[in-house]
Amino acid sequence: LLDNFRQILNERHADKLEGKLLSDKEFQRLLTMINGKGIFESARILRDKLPLKRDDESEVYLSFLDTRHWCKNTFQVTNQIAVDDQYKARYDVTLLVNGLPLAQIELKRRGMDINQAFNQVRRYRKHNYTGLFRYIQLFIISNGIETRYLSNNDGEFLKSHMFYWSDKDNHRINTLSDFTDTFLRPCHLAKMISRYMILNET
């Protein structure tokens, strides 16, 4: 995950870096600056520009999400990312935007209670989400026939915060396949994160 994030940072900031890729020390300085934050602070950093001092004492501003040109972000899908720390975990599907995990999809077998997926995500939030996973903006939970989404936050994680997605005619979209074809289209996902998610410090 870190190597991929670093590679995309270098690619997206090629002009600003003037041909000099981020060194190991520079990348480590960046990680020190962006890791260990709360959900709100991580979300703020995601939408901001961050000054990074280079090894030659010059300064470069790095950005992590293009909030104006949604389709110009880099989108990737990963399956079964394994975390092997005190609490082992294996995440079903993670959507990366510019190398950062911004959306997490938790899947259960068709027909299973969707609350099992919600409870799984709640456990992950409590025990596993550290480092770059603090940048997750959205959770999507589904059993194939029922799909909901909810935003990440520093506060209490409540089932009442789960929402259905609807089409332009206000018809509810339930199945995972239909949700994927609408809500999770790359440009739309970046648009949702950029424009319609309100940062609330309280």
UniProtKB/TrEMBL annotation:
Enzyme superclass (EC): hydrolase
Keyword Cell membrane annotated: no
Reaction equations catalysed: Endonucleolytic cleavage of DNA to give random double-stranded fragments with terminal 5'-phosphates, ATP is simultaneously hydrolyzed
Restriction endonuclease type I HsdR N-terminal domain: residues covered: 1-155
Entry EC no(s): 3.1.21.3
One BP term from GO: DNA restriction-modification system
A single MF term (Gene Ontology): ATP binding
Keyword terms, alphabetized: ATP-binding, DNA-binding, Endonuclease, Hydrolase, Nuclease, Nucleotide-binding, Restriction system
Keyword DNA-binding appears in the UniProt entry: yes
Family listed: Belongs to the HsdR family.
Protein name from the UniProt record: type I site-specific deoxyribonuclease
